Amino acid sequence: LIQGVNLGKINCGRHQQLCSSRNINRYPMWGVLKPGGAFELSHGKDTINELAKFAENAIRAENVWALPASRILEILERRDPEPWFLDFYAPWCPPCMQFLPEVRKASLEFEKSAIKFGTIDCTVHSAICRQYNIRSYPTAMLINGTTTMQFNLQKTTDNVVEFINEAISPTVFKLNSRNFHETLGKKDKKTLWVVDYFAPWCGPCQQLAPEWTALAKALRFLDNVKIASVDCEADAE
């Protein structure tokens, strides 16, 4: 059904360490080893059509990696200098299975050198997910150096792309307890600041977020107008 794909099988009874390194925790499981070294597992139905569809989409999304424990910790402990978009999921979670294809499609919009995409199965890496307070699925975030940005928008391809672009080249100023008074307290009298005070768990706030970014982009040519936001959960004080 798919041209140019080699098929193989692994006996996990004989090669336990290899299967463990690939997050194999049930049998049978189907995975795709992609050009460049990335690897992904199928969590859909074990039918030929479902597997062919998964393989085709996974191969196209070369920059989506099913991460092993060592790599997850390297990223979360800030020992990896590259930016990562991480998706924490559980295979039994329907919204997670709906979001995974959106992540794959979003990955196609970026060069590998700009950002990488990692998926983390919390049924396999339960200790890590508990350690980092992953309490609901799917949970997604962008980690860039010492900065962590939670993805709280609706789980669509367009929102993921918009979120990453905004994180890499922000049009909305992110105000917090460290820069709020320095920025607004010493602002030019001719400069107008429009500030969105939001909470990540707030549904209307999530709906406003893409509109707020669109507003910032529309007004970015006006030097005397600045669009900003404050995360009132992170900076409650």
From TrEMBL:
Residue ranges annotated for the Thioredoxin domain, each copy included: 28-169
SUPFAM superfamilies membership: Thioredoxin-like
Pfam family, one: Thioredoxin
Any single biological process term in GO: IRE1-mediated unfolded protein response
One GO CC term on file: endoplasmic reticulum lumen
Single GO term (MF): protein-disulfide reductase activity
Protein name, UniProt field: Thioredoxin domain-containing protein
Classification of source organism: Eukaryota, Metazoa, Ecdysozoa, Arthropoda, Hexapoda
